[in-house]
Design goal:
The chain has about 1200 residues and is an alpha+beta fold. Among the domains are: about 200 residues, no CATH class; about 70 residues, no CATH class; about 270 residues, Glycosidases (TIM Barrel, Alpha-Beta Barrel), CATH 3.20.20.80; about 210 residues, no CATH class; about 90 residues, no CATH class. Helix content is about 30%, strand content about 15%. Strands 19, 20, 21, 22, 23, 24, 25, 26 and 32 form a nine-stranded mixed beta sheet that branches. It has a six-stranded antiparallel beta sheet with strand order 1-9-8-5-6-4, sandwiched between helices. The longest helix is centred in the C-terminal third of the chain and has 28 residues.
Length: about 1200
């Protein structure tokens, strides 16, 4: 009889609770909260690999079978854990409904012990023996104290009796507890509290590093077996409550008869051997029993219990359903019997169980247990008993396995009932998409989930040590690809833009019909009344529907429409039962009217719970989507096409019932790219073998693309229905060590911030186009390191570039690899590929069409424009005097400080004062005069120009005069009104607007006329580039002209010209009698023309209209000094700025490109545009900025179609 107790510490880290990832389910960084899970470990989070016990930074309680060594690589582990929180109550959660017989619960024991409490004294001893070889650093004492405190809180709330084995981890420390069945939990709490208070003194004695966890585990195992550690040394005696029989005090030995070694508390007294005398009277052991409680129920003393049951370590090896003798004699045959329904006699494994002890307690041999469990779920043999596992202790059918919180597939999903129809346990609760289910009940699509690795026993639901195994839908082979597609599809996406964005209208007539079998026109949207909305793309769409030579497909949705606050609900509502019929009828009618060949839907994503900034989606959305497609298919003519864009992520795809959807659609656009990116940081499950999620991995990895193809074909979609996405851009990363090579090299930055260089076109760190990479290879520029190679493992091109200490790594596909990838896809009978490459030809066509349209609009807008300009000139001059008067306002005008004032009442003597300090004579009922003497001429005119935009040449000095009527006082009765007695107010030498012939306001129309020659040169240059790009459209080689450079370079001058001519159009509706705000609008439109056309005019600007700065001042005349659109004057005043440089390089304005080849000029122009900062672009008018952003979107979205 050895009541024993020990504390020990160890470095440790812990995670788990389930999270969903791109490829499946993994343990989260920390387990579930103990407060939610309750005190029963059956409800805690299960962890199966020590490598997962590393990153939880909170206090964790956990238990494991102490006989399964964490140091043995051949051990199969089940660690049950939860996160302890401050002030935790540990209220019990509902226990799983498990069809099993009574069994022991280590951490939750019976409240009624059937024994009484007595106080006794023990002398704890601690020795270094087993832990003296610790190789890790000792944990911090404060960490030990906190772990102990949480362990103490838990123990204090647990039952008063029963064996307890438990660990608590806090940061660098783990505290392990073994409390024998006869130690009261109140006593354990007191000892733990004392340990916490003195942790600094005891760390050196009982601490161990993480690497020595196995030694700590061995110590717990020894104490469980009633053994002591060697090399003990005396410690301070402690008083502690223990449980004894209610019959006598035979367990309460005097203090001087007790010895303790290394934290063990052991009462002296050795049982005497007895001879059997026939069968004895017995008591059955229940969960939480101790020798004291058993002796009480027997009605005998503790000594008598030891005498009648002389086996070794009886009190430390008690097991539920074991029997003890209450008198002399031998035990009857208590071997377990099968249950009446044929189910075996079940037993739940505890943290201190091994087969030997369980067999001894149930009158069996270890071989009996092995034989009984050959078909038991999860049975990996006696060497691998798992905490909480249900095993058979008799012949019979194994019971359902214990439920596991967090399991989502297989028979251990909570609430799963035993099948009655012959269904195999492994086939219960299959994963969505027919994904693989591993032995622990998690779904996934990679080799970690899909590889069978049964334990040597061959029992179901098992995995070999260090693996996860697979129980259903196993395998990593592409299926459903026996039939080739009837025809190969070459699909192009045409992204149309809002008609109001004039600069980005594209002539869809120029799409090369012989290069595509299908053109998807993106995007139409859905109205709130569930009709088709093409209002934003109507101009382009009207031309698209008249074309032929390819299938005309209208695509609905896209990321923005699916996720923005004002539209995300549309797809959700349109596919609901109550709106579905209306939506479908509207679609069918629209297709018929427009003679379209098909519809494509890009809803991102039905059922997804985590799209930022919108309400989570409901799980019914996937089924609603299916029902909608089914209804639409039934009402569309059979020759019309129906397709769907779907993600290659298990997390998002699992909401789609793709197997059923495949019956109603012709093909899927499968988005198999962006497999890795900066967003992977801190996601330990994003890439195999890289816990930090920051390893350099290719976003177009061929193996992972293959896995995605496996996932969807296993889900029931035929390969020939899938169009696989490929890319012409790279994901780039800043290398932590440029000398590193291989898949475990790491990159810098967090999940939201890439440290990689931004490309001049894409302007986004972490994302860079093939064209930009090719430019780096050909012209390294400032980069001293440029190295390219092919990574055969991922089938990707790799480019390393930068300077020492700042080198980027980018993975991409060049032309050769892309061709190989496409042929591979075709060889697997997939429906071909969707090249997400740069459709630069389309972008140049947009710009060229816009240039032609702008020239045409100039002719139209010129008609009647001169009359409008006359009003503009008149209104501009009318603003001058009011602005001067405001500047010279009596009393506090900003211009008064530059004058001395000589003031006098009518017929009075003049008095000199500061104009700001003189008496307020204008408030007196009298006539007066003020003579202004300008004492700081430069200061006055500088301030007047800055504040009011008025040039010195526009000002003359002279006299002004007005009058008011004197106050007549109270009128006399019958006299009527008195005549006005005029009180004259004069201002002498007062600043005034000069004569109109002195004020010059240039006509912007003359600027455009003067620029026509340079615009023609721009047109010629653009047409040449358009043809060049068209001839080399599919070539990604580094020696070819960068089409991206062309798009970026031409966009700026064309957008400037467009802005100027559109401003002419905008003012034509403004009449001579317009209201004040309309006048201001007109003035701004005309000023915009000036600024946007300046680079085309060059040196002719001065004679035509004056400097840009003087034009900008006009805004001040109408009280809009802070208007941001006019700050572009800062750029236009500088002939070396980007707008001048770009135009000079590509059109020869100012002789800028004569020394360069066309390719070099385009590259230089693109680079000049790329050097413009966001603060520079912010100075341009809003419409220009919007259109420029759309050009960048063309480059980016057509280079990275997703």
């Amino acid at each position: 009889m050895r009541p024993s107790f020990v504390l020990l510490t160890s470095l440790f880290g812990l995670i788990s609770a389930v999270t969903e990832s791109y490829n499946g389910q993994y343990a989260d960084n920390c387990p579930s909260l103990c407060a939610h899970a309750g005190p029963n470990p059956a409800n805690w989070t299960n962890i199966h690999h020590v490598r997962n016990l590393e990153s939880c930074d909170q206090t964790v309680l956990f238990g494991l079978n102490i006989h399964n060594s964490v140091a043995d690589p051949n051990t199969i582990l089940t660690i049950r854990a939860c996160v302890a929180s401050h002030g935790q109550t540990y209220e019990a959660a509902a226990s799983p409904d498990v069809p099993q017989q009574p069994s022991q619960h280590n951490l939750v024991v019976a409240q009624s012990c059937g024994a009484k409490v007595v106080k006794t004294a023990f002398t704890p001893q601690a020795g270094p023996s087993t832990l003296s070889e610790a190789s890790s650093a000792a944990p911090q004492s404060t960490h030990v104290a906190e772990a102990t405190r949480q362990l103490s809180l838990f123990v204090d709330k647990s039952a008063e009796c029963g064996t307890t084995i438990l660990f608590a981890k806090h940061k660098s420390a783990v505290v392990g507890l073994y409390s024998g069945a006869q130690i009261t939990k109140h006593a354990v709490r007191g000892f733990l509290d004392s340990f916490a208070e003195n942790a600094a003194l005891t760390v050196g004695v009982v601490s161990a590093g993480f690497a020595d966890l196995a030694a700590a585990q061995d110590a717990i195992k020894d104490w469980n077996n009633g053994l002591c550690l060697d090399e003990t040394i005396p410690a301070t005696p402690v008083s502690m409550d223990v449980l004894v029989s209610t019959v006598d005090n035979s367990f309460n030995a005097p203090p001087n008869t007790t010895t303790i070694s290394h934290g063990n508390m052991t009462a002296r007294g050795k049982p005497r051997a007895l001879l059997p005398r026939g069968e004895c009277r017995t008591e059955e052991v229940h969960g939480g029993d101790s020798c004291a409680s058993l002796a009480s129920r027997c009605g005998i003393s503790g000594n008598d219990l030891s005498k009648y049951n002389p086996q070794k370590n009886l009190c430390s090896t008690l097991k539920p359903k074991q029997h003890v003798c209450c008198n002399a004699g031998t035990l009857p045959d208590f071997r377990p019997r099968p249950q009446p329904d044929g189910t075996c006699n079940t037993y739940k494994v505890s943290d201190n169980d091994n087969c030997s002890d369980v067999a001894d307690a149930h009158y069996l041999t270890q071989q009996d247990i092995e034989d009984f469990n050959k078909n038991t779920w999860g049975w990996a043999g006696c060497a691998h008993l798992q905490s909480g596992q249900l095993i058979c202790l008799s012949e019979g059918t194994p019971s359902m396995p214990s439920p596991v919180q967090g399991a989502t597939c297989g028979p251990q999903v909570p609430g799963t009932e035993k099948p009655s129809n012959g269904t195999a346990l492994a086939d219960l609760n299959p994963c969505p998409l027919n994904a693989c289910c591993d032995a622990w009940g998690f779904c996934g699509t990679t080799v970690d989930f899909c590889t069978k690795s049964p334990a040597d026993t061959g029992a179901p639901g098992t995995a070999k040590p260090g693996t996860n195994g697979c129980i259903s839908n196993c395998g990593m082979e592409i299926v459903n690809n026996g039939k080739a597609p009837d025809q190969l599809k070459t699909i192009g996406y045409f992204e149309a833009f809002d008609q109001s964005r004039m600069c980005l209208r594209m002539s869809v007539k120029e799409i090369p019909a012989n290069k595509y079998s299908h053109i998807h026109f993106a995007f139409a949207t859905v109205t709130s009344s569930f009709d088709v909305d093409i209002s934003d793309v109507e101009y382009e769409f009207s031309k698209f529907v008249k074309m032929s030579g390819f299938k005309k497909i209208l695509t609905f949705g896209g990321w923005a429409f699916s996720t923005e606050a004002n539209t995300f609900q549309r797809f959700r509502d349109a596919t609901k039962k109550e709106h579905r019929e209306t939506f479908v009828n509207n679609l069918v009618s629209f297709m018929s009217r427009k003679n379209l060949d098909g519809f494509d839907f890009d809803w991102e994503y039905p059922g997804a719970p985590d799209i930022p900034d919108i309400t989570p989606r409901s799980p019914e959305e996937g089924d609603n989507y299916l029902a909608f497609l089914q209804l639409l298919r039934s009402k569309l003519p059979s020759e019309k096409s129906l397709s769907l864009a779907v993600p290659a992520s298990y997390w998002y795809l699992k909401q789609y019932p793709v197997k059923d959807i495949a019956k109603y659609v012709d093909y899927f656009i499968y988005m198999t790219y962006d497999l890795h990116g900066q967003w992977d940081v801190d996601n330990k499950s994003s890439m195999p073998g890289c816990q930090a999620g920051n390893c350099l991995r290719s976003h177009i990895n061929k193996t992972e693309t293959h896995d995605a193809m496996v996932m969807i074909t296993k889900a029931g979609v035929e390969a020939r229905q899938l169009v696989i996405g490929i890319t012409s851009y790279a994901r780039s990363f800043r290398m932590n060590d440029a000398s590193c090579s291989g898949p475990f090299c790491t990159f810098a930055g967090d999940k939201r911030h890439s440290m990689a260089y931004a490309g001049p076109c894409t302007t986004t760190g972490g994302y860079i186009s093939n064209a930009e990479l090719n430019d780096i290879i050909k012209n390294p520029g400032n980069y001293s390191i440029v190295k390219s190679y092919i990574d055969k493992d991922s089938d990707s091109n790799i480019l390393m570039y930068g300077n020492p200490g700042a080198v980027d790594w980018a993975a991409y596909m060049d032309g050769d690899l892309k061709t190989n990838r496409i042929n591979w896809i075709k060889g697997l009978n997939f429906g071909d590929s969707l090249d997400s490459g740069c459709v630069h030809l389309f972008a140049l066509e947009i710009l060229y069409s816009q240039l032609l349209d702008s020239l045409s609009l100039f002719q139209t807008n010129s008609e009647g424009y001169d009359d409008k300009f006359g009003w503009y000139e008149k209104w501009t001059k009318e603003q001058i005097q009011p602005r001067i008067d405001s500047f010279m306002k009596l009393g506090d005008g900003k211009g008064l400080k530059y004058f001395d004032c000589y003031w006098a009442y009518t017929d009075g003597k003049e008095t000199k004062d500061s104009c700001l300090g003189m008496p307020h004579i204008w408030d007196v009922n009298a006539g007066w005069s003020i003579r202004y003497d300008l004492v700081d001429k430069k200061g006055f005119f500088d301030a007047l120009a800055a504040e009011a935009g008025i040039d010195e040449s526009w000002v003359a000095f002279g006299e002004t005069s007005d009058y008011t009527c004197a106050d007549p006082g109270d009128p006399r009765p019958g006299t009527g009104g008195l005549p006005c007695r005029k009180l004259f107010h004069k201002k002498l030498n007062y600043p005034q607007k000069g004569s109109d012939d002195k004020i010059h306001v240039g006509n912007p129309k003359k600027l455009i006329e003067a620029s026509i020659g340079n615009v023609t040169a721009l047109r010629t240059s653009l047409l040449s580039s358009y043809l060049s790009v068209g001839l080399s459209f599919y070539d990604d080689g580094p020696n070819d002209t960068s089409a991206t450079d062309a798009v970026v370079a031409y966009s700026m001058p064309i957008l400037q010209l467009t802005e100027a001519i559109n401003s002419m159009k905008d003012i034509k509706e403004i009449g001579e009698d317009a209201k004040e705000q309309a006048k201001k609008d007109l003035i701004f439109k005309i000023i915009t023309i000036v600024f946007m056309v300046i680079p085309f005019v060059g040196e002719a600007l001065g004679p035509l209209i004056g400097s840009a700065a003087s034009v900008a001042r006009i805004a001040l005349l109408i009280g809009e000094a802070g208007n941001g659109a006019l700050t572009v004057a800062d750029i236009m005043e500088d002939p070396s700025s980007a707008p001048f440089a770009v135009l000079g390089l590509i059109a020869g304005v100012g002789g800028g490109s004569g020394r360069l080849s066309k390719a070099e000029a385009l590259a230089e122009a693109s680079r000049a545009r790329g050097l413009m900062k966001g603060s520079d672009l912010a100075k341009f008018p809003q419409r220009f900025r919007d259109q420029d952003a759309l050009v960048q979107k063309v480059v980016k979205s057509l280079c990275a179609r997703s």
